[in-house]
């Protein structure tokens, strides 16, 4: 009780695991901290229930300003990084903790060849995972758009880059806009690693493990982050989406 403590409230997707991993790495550096006269000691809430109780005790509703459009996952963990939105939209984070997860959208592109043979099964899997399809179209990818879907690692190797681009533009792809709570992370978790062999080694039920042939013909592209999902929705569905609840494009419009 002789020294003050700093209490933080942080918010992000998969907050509990990410914060726990960060604190574990910090623990591994404690030897260096001891040499500098200060040993940092940290405590975090481990469950949503404890998070809420501690937040109510320590903070008031007026202490929080949350960005409505960027809420990716509820529950959030006890330590919230607070920032104002572009629209200066203020709301009670404590109220948000009680109301549940916000429905968001993400983009799934089923690559040429994969959707024509397995569309019914893929749609069934999406339904079982509580995804709603709010946008769907066939598309022949232009080379520059195909390039924009590739990771920076792929772009570093000209031969690999050309293999991906050739395959993505070789036929018709099916683009879906999907909606559900925590949509971006849920879809990425279902797809698994981009290498089907690695996916099969981790879990044979991962989608790329089941439908992928190689790192190039791996069946699917999925938006890897919330920001990329917004970009992909604007790219593939500029005409809008058939959902009233998902206002991602409207909220993110500058």
UniProtKB/TrEMBL annotation:
UniProt-listed Pfam families: NDK
Keyword Transferase: yes
Keyword entries, A-Z: Kinase, Transferase
Database matches in InterPro entries: NDK-like_dom (IPR034907), NDK-like_dom_sf (IPR036850), TXND_domain-containing (IPR051766)
A GO term for molecular function: kinase activity
Domain Nucleoside diphosphate kinase-like: 103-243
Matching PANTHER family: DYNEIN AXONEMAL ASSEMBLY FACTOR 8 (PTHR46135:SF4), NME/NM23 FAMILY MEMBER 8 (PTHR46135)
Family: Belongs to the NDK family.
Protein name, entry field: NDK7 kinase
Species: Psophia crepitans
Lineage, highest ranks first: Eukaryota, Metazoa, Chordata, Craniata, Vertebrata
């Amino acid at each position: 009780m002789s020294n003050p403590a700093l209490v933080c409230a942080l918010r992000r997707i998969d907050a509990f695991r990410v914060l726990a991993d960060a604190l574990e790495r910090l623990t591994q550096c404690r030897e260096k901290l001891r040499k500098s006269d200060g040993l940092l000691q940290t405590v975090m809430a481990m469950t949503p229930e404890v998070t809420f109780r501690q937040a109510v005790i320590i903070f008031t509703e007026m202490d929080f300003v949350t960005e409505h459009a960027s809420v990716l996952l509820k529950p959030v963990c006890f330590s919230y990084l607070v920032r104002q939105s572009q629209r200066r939209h203020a709301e009670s984070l404590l109220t948000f903790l009680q109301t549940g997860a916000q429905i968001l959208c993400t983009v799934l592109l089923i690559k040429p060849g994969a959707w024509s043979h397995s569309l019914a099964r893929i749609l069934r899997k999406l339904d079982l995972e509580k995804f709603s399809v709010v946008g769907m179209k066939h598309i022949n990818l232009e080379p520059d758009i195909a390039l924009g879907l590739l990771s920076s690692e792929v772009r570093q190797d000209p031969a690999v880059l050309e293999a991906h681009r050739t395959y993505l533009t070789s036929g018709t792809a099916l683009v879906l806009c999907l909606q559900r709570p925590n949509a971006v992370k849920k879809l990425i978790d279902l797809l698994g690693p981009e290498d089907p062999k690695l996916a099969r080694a981790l879990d044979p039920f991962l989608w790329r493990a089941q439908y992928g042939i190689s790192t190039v013909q791996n069946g699917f592209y999925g938006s890897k982050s919330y920001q990329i999902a917004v970009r992909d929705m604007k790219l593939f569905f500029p005409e809008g989406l058939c959902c009233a609840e998902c206002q991602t494009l409207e909220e993110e419009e500058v």
